[in-house]
Amino acid sequence: MSNFIVSARKYRPQRFEDVVGQQHVAGTLKNALATDHVAHAFLFTGPRGVGKTTCARILAKILNCENRTKDYEACNECASCKSFNENASFNIIELDAASNNSVEHIRALTEQVRFQPQQGRYKVFIIDEVHMLSNQAFNAFLKTLEEPPPYAIFILATTEKHKIIPTILSRCQIFDFRRITVADMVLHLKEICRKEGIEAEEDALHIIGQKADGALRDALSIFDRIISFSGKKVRYEDVIENLNVLDYDYYFQITDALLAEDAPAILNLFDQILRKGFEADIFIGGLAEHLRNILVCKDATTLDLLEVGESLRERYRKQASLAPSSFLLTALNLCNDCDINFKMARNKRLHVEMALLKMCYIHRATPAAGPEKKTIDVTKTPPQPPANGNSAPPPAPQPVKTANGNAMPLDRSEMIALASGIRQGMKKAESIPLSLDAYDQAVEVEEAHKASLQSRLSLENIKTEWAAYAQSMESNLVRMALTNADLRLDAHLLTVTVRSAIDRSHVQGETTRLLDTLRHRLHDMSLKFELVVDDTKAREQVIARPQRALTTKEKLDRLKTTNPMVEELVKRFDLKLDE
Asked: Would you put residue 105 in left (φ > 0), alpha (ψ -120 to 50) or beta?
């Protein structure tokens, strides 16, 4: 049988200085060891594969080391370190809470806390995936975690801190582990390649680091897979083929075609991508990432945000010099909209192709950046001729005349423009050389504009608009409640009187829309609304009701009087009275 050991185990850090990307945690724990301020309970939390359990084991190993180094690392030579390296230490107890999450398992653990360590100073309990414990198990663990014996230290590790009850969190020192950056992963993979005698391209290692998504353990697992595929030489082409990653070159070609407005080339490239088996949503997400990388290359201060190799970095710089920022921002917005609406699209290929074509013609859809067009301000005084009198002043613009010599009337847009000038002041309008007829037309437009803005607030107009609004209602009950309401206007206060609480609820539901409609139609924003219930008419109807029982025909006649729709219902369905 093969003695192969996966890289995640073979190159698991044995010292704090070997831990990748967690210097803040390692430094704090070393300082605690140096000052002998080691807490009795720790909680290591963070994403998967970032070194939580590894740091817990290193800390447990150092705590029982008999000959710590000057930088407070384990010596790896004493009996405690050797037993730890051979997984034979009785002072370090690991528990997987994912499969041991009941009260009985925690009680068995607390029973072991009672016994002192046989060798060394501390008995360390490492509980992995602690968030998987049940509430009953957490409660059983509380007292022991709060007041353990002086030789007991608990190290809890979890990826989901929010699932741990607050009483447990308050008893632990919490260390938040960060996602490992692509740059740190690439350096670690380079070191492993050096030790293993593997030749690897930097771009290939960057792809592995990006695919790992912040988890070093995932990066090492991917690395082992690539080694099994390509042997001692790791090439960029092998990595993208094995990991099913779309080549950067496609994105560079797509962007070049977008900048050149070459729609056929874009559609052909997208067809090639689909034929290779890549999903359209994966492509559009990758294109958005590519455009984002180009955008961060536009400024030297954001170059550190680009997580690619040096050769690709140079290609990004060249393409960034050709792509305007306005184009990149608009294209990113289109990619985002395409990604959001992708799931709802029935023809997904056409959905992405339409987004690509929109990006292709961005410059035609929006005005190109350039010098602003100069506009002539008619309110300014024309420039005066020079003092020497060599050049004559430019002729004043004259109105266009018809064949009979009369000034041609202005069109509506010109009249409105002139009317706005009149509205701002007569002096501004005097500088416009127009005929008297044209000026009269502009004055009439302005007067009509002012008349249209005058208040039309009156009880008659309110009743007209109220009736029109009532007829637009789909609900018969709301329509009848609005129609039967009594209106009274006092200055700017409209009092609406209804006959019952039910009518009030129907009218109240339309109050906001109705008041906005009246204000808009009557050109008076000061109109206010008051709703009153007056049930005297309803009581009068009850008092006037005859004491004898009504016949069926009398009941029907009364229903017809109350609601005219009843008669239409009888006619439509040809209903007959049951005598």
From this structure: alpha
Determine which helix (DSSP H) or strand (DSSP E) holds 489, and give its type and residue range.
strand 486-490
The alpha carbon dihedral of 226, 230, 235, 237 has a sign of negative
Q: What is the C-alpha separation between 297 and 317, in angstroms, rounded?
A: 6
3-state helix, strand and coil shares in percent for the chain, rounded to the nearest 5: 55, 10, 35
Q: For residue 438, how many other CB atoms are within 10 A of its CB?
A: 20
Residues 6+ apart with CB under 8 A from 420: none
Q: How remote is the C-alpha of 492 from its chain's centroid?
A: 45
Q: Please spell the DSSP secondary structure of 133-184, one letter per residue.
A: S-HHHHHHHHHHHHS--TTEEEEEEES-GGGS-HHHHTTSEEEEPPPPPHHH
**Of how many residues is the chain composed?**
579
Amino acid symbol at 69: T
Query: Is residue 34 a contact partner of residue 168, using CB atoms and an 8 Å limit?
Result: no
Query: What is the distance between the alpha carbons of residues 290 and 280, in angstroms, rounded to a whole number?
Result: 15
Quote the mean pLDDT of the chain.
80
User: All domains of the chain, ordered by start, with CATH?
Assistant: 7-176 (3.40.50.300), 182-242 (1.10.8.60), 248-365 (1.20.272.10), 412-452 (no CATH), 459-542 (3.30.300.20), 546-573 (no CATH)
Provide the whole-model pTM.
0.56
Predicted confidence (pLDDT) per residue in 374-414, tens digit: 443 434 444 454 444 444 444 444 444 444 444 444 455 55
